[in-house]
Amino acid sequence: MSSLTDEQIAAARSVDLLSYLEAHEPSSVRKTAPREYCLREHDSLKISNGKWFWFSRGIGSNNALDFLVQVRGLEFKEAVGILADGRSAPVYQQAAPLPEKPKPLLCLPMPNQNNHRLTAYLMGRGISKGVITACINQRILYESRRHHNCVFVGRNAEGKVRFACERGTSGDWKKDLDGSDKRFSFSIPARIAGNTTLNVYEAPVDLLSAAALRRSLWSLQHHLSLGGVSARALDQYLSDHPHIRCVNLCLDNDRVGRRATARLTKHLREKGCIVTNTPPASGKDYNAHLQNIRQEQKQASRPHKEAAISM
């Protein structure tokens, strides 16, 4: 093929990857879900709804042309010719499977000598010192040495650290640490063995806020932060605690939170769980609700203070 026409390129780009593979390489594709497939030689390359994405490499497209160039290593002109002529790529041109990128190791930040800034920050958001101290004592919360961030730690059923996220004690900076496994997000197991109730939140600060609202009763039940609205951490926690039967969804009172609540309710009921929905009574999330209550408590105490001063 001496030169390519716009029509040939357009025709090549119109071929989706699944159609190409089913026609020319049916043995190289495997079905993983009702409308999802993966490539046998690279199982992190997913194909769904006319699109493909190679998660371990961070590349993807909506056509077979980019696949032949980016994954199989063909020259652009040759790939267009193959698709335009309706033939399969020659076997000798297929790129050898590339090794998967190694997952980064999770390295926790060095702890500070004390947790003063962390405590002041969280108490400033209305969270009680008792809840903060309990988490510090359980080694799931501490202040980092370099930036004085709050570090929330997630452990697996054996107590091994598998997840950590940081939140700044000034501003709104937050991040999951590299190497974190989202299945083991920040959680506080029930103090009493065999408790069957799990309370679920979107973020660690919301979890601590709800615990502060429950006062002395908070440690009697399980608490889990999803680190968003995915079901990954929820499914893992239920797998690790099979005795749990009741799940109380305490997600944000906004559009995303309400949609996630509806989706997770259906998901949990299919698992046989009893599901309740307890969004914050005021504000977007539980921390906003807690701060509203703290403000009301301050305002209610002012007349008593003023009366005591005037006596």
Automatic annotation (TrEMBL):
<dbReference type="InterPro" id="IPR034154">
    <property type="entry name" value="TOPRIM_DnaG/twinkle"/>
</dbReference>
<feature type="domain" description="DUF3991">
    <location>
        <begin position="120"/>
        <end position="187"/>
    </location>
</feature>
<dbReference type="Pfam" id="PF13155">
    <property type="entry name" value="Toprim_2"/>
</dbReference>
<dbReference type="InterPro" id="IPR025054">
    <property type="entry name" value="DUF3991"/>
</dbReference>
<protein>
    <submittedName>
        <fullName>DUF3991 and toprim domain-containing protein</fullName>
    </submittedName>
</protein>
<dbReference type="Pfam" id="PF13154">
    <property type="entry name" value="DUF3991"/>
</dbReference>
